């Protein structure tokens, strides 16, 4: 009986001879732990899924890095070929980008018009694969054609073959005065990635873009693709030291980083909020153990007279509390893993059951809940729950260790 403390503690946790009210409080504590752990694992997995969807969809059109020349880049081919010799750089594409106003009938929308070479663009982004109507190669003929995001086209009531008027922030001087530069473009294609670029992005051919946006015969810079998206910031930073000072280099974490930092912060805040559910369940164990100590004062006194030390008594009630917590945490973790692994099927079942589409693709850009279960999240939730449970057992166990045997057994 050298290890009597865990043995007696677990007997107290699962004995059928407990006081009924104490047993109910214990059950509520375990159910709260199950709910908190399962919810936390499921929500973290869904947040991981949303972050992955967001990263994959937005970065399918956003290059890993940029080389910008404020004065324009005329020798962009030689610069691009030189950049390809740098480690980690796989492809480049010239671009000119400008914020414009698109008009169709009475509809006006702000947009980002990017002049590209379709042949090079296909090497740095997945824009050709995102086409739902027409082909990106239609921009290569040098005509004033445009490819629009599907949501942007819907807002302007445009379809392939229609024309749209674009106004750029450049001035044209004529004998009649100074006018903003405008041009009619023919819609030759639509793309859709299921993210925000669908609502503002438009593409034009490089030759037409140089005529419309300027500068003629030059580009604004180069878009870059690296061998690894995760290490792209380090690759672009290493490339910056090899290029002349007049070039400005940026990576996707600088152009899109605020969005992903916001998603990460949201995940942290949601985790803390849901962890409070686990904390409440853990500290319900305090009331369970306090009542258990009051109920077991006679047993404690007998153990002390038989030679049990205060530390042994304290270990009994720590084991008592952790026994309850472990059942709740284990059950919650199993349920959470099952929910996170099958959340899409569960969502589809609920939609079919109630006859309502929970996630309208036209509103949320997704048709089902994405979920990515990460073992690190499960381990973090489990350890945090155990730590809170251990903290919750310390005070009642300390009170049990201070029970005086003489006071309890005086009238026995």
From TrEMBL:
<dbReference type="InterPro" id="IPR011925">
    <property type="entry name" value="LolCE_TM"/>
</dbReference>
<dbReference type="GO" id="GO:0044874">
    <property type="term" value="P:lipoprotein localization to outer membrane"/>
</dbReference>
<feature type="domain" description="ABC3 transporter permease C-terminal">
    <location>
        <begin position="273"/>
        <end position="404"/>
    </location>
</feature>
<keyword id="KW-0813">Transport</keyword>
<dbReference type="Pfam" id="PF12704">
    <property type="entry name" value="MacB_PCD"/>
</dbReference>
<dbReference type="InterPro" id="IPR003838">
    <property type="entry name" value="ABC3_permease_C"/>
</dbReference>
<dbReference type="GO" id="GO:0042953">
    <property type="term" value="P:lipoprotein transport"/>
</dbReference>
<keyword id="KW-1003">Cell membrane</keyword>
<dbReference type="InterPro" id="IPR025857">
    <property type="entry name" value="MacB_PCD"/>
</dbReference>
<feature type="transmembrane region" description="Helical">
    <location>
        <begin position="268"/>
        <end position="294"/>
    </location>
</feature>
<feature type="transmembrane region" description="Helical">
    <location>
        <begin position="21"/>
        <end position="47"/>
    </location>
</feature>
<dbReference type="InterPro" id="IPR051447">
    <property type="entry name" value="Lipoprotein-release_system"/>
</dbReference>
<keyword id="KW-0449">Lipoprotein</keyword>
<keyword id="KW-1133">Transmembrane helix</keyword>
<feature type="domain" description="MacB-like periplasmic core">
    <location>
        <begin position="26"/>
        <end position="240"/>
    </location>
</feature>
<protein>
    <submittedName>
        <fullName>Lipoprotein-releasing ABC transporter permease subunit</fullName>
    </submittedName>
</protein>
<keyword id="KW-0472">Membrane</keyword>
<dbReference type="Pfam" id="PF02687">
    <property type="entry name" value="FtsX"/>
</dbReference>
<feature type="transmembrane region" description="Helical">
    <location>
        <begin position="378"/>
        <end position="398"/>
    </location>
</feature>
<keyword id="KW-0812">Transmembrane</keyword>
<comment type="similarity">
    <text>Belongs to the ABC-4 integral membrane protein family. LolC/E subfamily.</text>
</comment>
<feature type="transmembrane region" description="Helical">
    <location>
        <begin position="315"/>
        <end position="340"/>
    </location>
</feature>
<dbReference type="GO" id="GO:0098797">
    <property type="term" value="C:plasma membrane protein complex"/>
</dbReference>
